[in-house]
Amino acid sequence: MKSKNDSLRSKLLKSALLLSLFAIFSLVNIQPASAHCDSYDGPALVDASKALETNNVDLIKKWISAEDESEVVALFHKTYSLKGGDQEVYEIVKKHFYETFVRLHREMEGAPFTGLKPAGTTAPITVMSDKALATGDFGSLLKALNKHVNSQLQEKYNKVAALYKVKDNSVEEGRRYVDAYVDYTHSVEAVHDILAGGGAHQH
Q1: How far is residue 42's CA from residue 142's CA, in Å, rounded to a whole number?
Q2: Contact in structure between 33 and 111 (CB atoms under 8 Å)
Q3: Distance CA 131, CA 153 (A)
Q4: Which pLDDT does position 27 carry in this prediction?
Q5: Quick one: pLDDT at residue 34?
Q6: What stretches in the chain show pLDDT beneath 70?
Q7: pTM for this model (two decimals)
Q8: How far apart are CA 116 and CA 98, in angstroms?
Q9: N or C, fewer C-beta in 10 Å, the chain?
Q10: What single-letter DSSP state applies at residue 56?
Q11: Where are the domains of the chain?
Q12: Cβ distance 84 to 101 under 8 Å?
């Protein structure tokens, strides 16, 4: 039987996960494919750049499936071999390598590839998440998420609660209420569905 401390810790962890997921949906507007691994400052391309700097192809293998490894490794070596030659040619081949690498990575995730994105286009919540991993400071991330969640959820609730009182006064007020109600409940339901489904990874 779990101790009271274990039970409390489990409840706190679940609450933190729920709040974090809601914050993610709020910050990225529940969009399934924001720029992250396809952006130049995303972790995949950062590793690809480092791999070319150090001639260490092993740094990028984790981002692709075993089935795609031979294609990516061959293209990596071809790209690296051109590094000391004509820089215009190298930049063209390097971009092709990056595009192939990211496309295969996103195919592995079941996500479409829509081209490489500039640095700075990664969703703020993802930047914060990556920073927490790099620094080991999850507390600051959770604190920021909780603050944002409290603000967003309170705002959504206040809006729908106010309209609830007048929703039957007229068709126009009723429609405004329904719009607010859908926004409020769908946000909560989306978080529940992610938790119930095990939190499938999408960028």
Answers
A1: 21
A2: yes
A3: 25
A4: 44
A5: 47
A6: 1-35, 190-192, 194-195, 197-203
A7: 0.63
A8: 8
A9: N
A10: -
A11: 43-109, 138-203
A12: no
